[in-house]
Amino acid sequence: METVTMTLVQQPELYLECYNVTPDQFAGKSLAEIADLPAHEGKIQWKLGDFFKFEGKAGETAADTKIVVNGNVRKMKRFGQKMSAGEVVINSDTDMYIGGWMTGGTITVKGNADTFLGIAMEGGEILVEGDAQNHVGSAYRGDWRGMSGGLIRIKGNAGNDIGTAMTGGTIIIEGDAFIHVLTHAEGGTVIIKGDVEGRVGGQMVKGDAYIFGNLLYPLPGFKKVATVEKEVDGATYTFDQYIGDLGERKEKKKGEIIYGNLYLKK
Q1: What residues does each domain of the chain span?
Q2: pTM of the complete model beyond 0.70
Q3: Which residue in 179, 249, 197, 191 sits closest to 221, CA to CA?
Q4: Is beta strand 106-109 parallel, antiparallel or unpaired with respect to 151-154?
Q5: Nearest to 169 by CA among 186, 192, 148
Q6: What is the pLDDT of residues 118-165, one digit of tens each?
Q7: 65 with 84: CB under 8 angstroms?
Q8: Whole-angstrom Cα distance, residue 178 to residue 198?
Q9: Helix (H) or strand (E) holding 24
């Protein structure tokens, strides 16, 4: 795999949209061609080379291309957006929409990520070594198609609206989350190893939520049906299983009603 290292040399005045920083866009291009790719600061169009210097070499394909981003890019958005393969490593905190709509490849954020991480993601993996904010793996505002595949792992805490309208894939939060987990979900799995304040599974049709810590305010639309052992993230634990949201429409499969599941660790 070939590597392109991009190092910040000039901060934007506002926030910079880095939607072209993907292995798909860099693959097969020279460093000069990469530096000429557009980026937007509001309605003003710039080039990536106005803010970064570039070293290394891109691969011939996205799968053969790794991008390393150096410098404080806290005011930059959309790294890895719609990427299909390859690797992106961000050695900093970063802003919104990281890995949005991605279908493959891997993204590693070595700091914190802001809102809309991995929205409408279809495949690939995202690792955030710090915290993430709101709407992880959720649908874009006004849409009903959230994350459908892939894996998002957050080593720290996350905010609210995790996995909204999710249909597939897995989100693992190793710290705490706030409110609204798997709202409107029709599939997928969210694992929270810390505490959650409440509103887990509201209007959920299908999907699985695992809460290892305390759930302060459970929703009334769930009822306990069993105590079970489940393998979660490589280890086996005992959970109280609740089904719901009982107020929502339910599908049948082979004559059996399909519910969403909420698992609370004992």
Answers
A1: 112-265
A2: yes
A3: 249
A4: unpaired
A5: 148
A6: 999 999 999 999 999 999 999 998 888 899 999 999 999 999 999 999
A7: no
A8: 7
A9: helix 23-26
